[in-house]
Specification:
1 helix; 7 strands
Length: 67
């Protein structure tokens, strides 16, 4: 089952990442994290969330409430 995480890019765009396709999460100082994907040629995206948020326990969302 896919593990999707809601994130925000540095330019403010909301994205959802499938953590099953992530090879590495790298800390970027005070600017969030770089998420590097494993598929094909390595590609990455920079998000505002920290490593603990990205790889921590899975969060379930229902509407505007978080469980």
């Amino acid at each position: 089952m896919a593990s999707w995480v809601k994130c925000t890019t540095v330019d403010g765009t909301e994205v959802r990442l499938n953590m099953e396709h992530v090879a590495l999460v790298r800390h970027r100082g005070g600017t969030g994290s770089e998420v590097i994907f494993a598929a094909g040629s390595l590609s990455s995206i920079v998000v505002k969330e920290d490593q603990e948020y990205l790889v921590g326990p899975q969060r379930l969302e229902h509407g505007r409430y978080q469980v």
